[in-house]
Amino acid sequence: MKHSILIILLTFATNGFLSAESVSSKAYKKRIELLTYLRELEPMIKNFRGEDAEGKPTALNAPEGKEGFRLKKYNELRRIYQEGLQYYFEGNFNSAYQRFLECQVGVEKVTEELSQLYVLRAEEMMKVAMEKKNPANPLDKALLDVSIEYGKGSYFRHDVLDQAREAPFSRRMYDPKEVHYVYNKYDIEKNMELGYKHLGLAKEARITALKVEKNLEKHQKLQPSHRKYRIENYFAAINLCRDSKANAINIYKLKYPYDNYYLNNSQGKSEARIDETGKPVEGEPVKVDGVTYDFSKNPYIKFDNRLQAMFDVRVPEEYRVDHADLRGRVYDIDSENMVFFKYDQERKKQLNVPNKPATGSTATP
């Protein structure tokens, strides 16, 4: 009997020993995991760098001590991760694993704060997209106006579009630039629906992450596996907010298809229009990152879905950084390269492209 019990105990002990994961293996997995997180965070942090110690907006390449608070934290995480790598390749796996765990704690704090920022900005973008962008323009419509005035059975559709007209004997009784509201009505409303659906899921993911610590027993402490779960939920919230922002941007694109007219004329001006009194209103020069020139000759202009965020003035200026971010692009880098020809000085001279203003785009929410 005693012999049998001894065999059973030895069996359990052996199984426990065999199932225990070595520190080197845990360090290897954590190294790959954190590298993935840092790579995914980089464009987000560079787009939303935060203010400096004095509460002022910061440039992307600001000197040390003047960088935004998020960028400063991110650089510190990179330093800790690099120390862990040095220990790892030296074969000091215990020290490496400790550094990686320290980096993981920092990533958790950064993603928690960043996910809150994304939720707030996505919510703001959806609300603003539903309203008029330019109240002075009589053809600008809020989303509710589109639903009421251009839906099935509405005056515009029933008494205007659905009536056969013999041109030129019968005069058109509507502005042709209103017709796009009819064709885009369903897509505009669907993007509103999906935008708020994604926003709601993002909030749920963030709440799920925040509740992890509350759901632990009194004697339990947060383990690396718990932190990993929280980080992944924060990233899920961020990506869902990006989807919500994409829906808001789609609403802008559907509501204002004529705003990018400046790309097709040599003066870089917006399109002329007729105001409510019937008087013509001249187009105004469009500024991109504070400058205007003949954008029609810019070789980096690509239209349709390939149009880079800084050139798409259908989207309000304060949200173009979000437009770039949801594609994984860094707005300031794209602007330097595609608006100011940082690496193509000859073409810059040919097109008479001005230098970037000292008070350029440095908005860092």
TrEMBL record:
Record-given protein name: Uncharacterized protein
Origin: domain of life: Bacteria
Organism listed in the record: Leptospira ryugenii
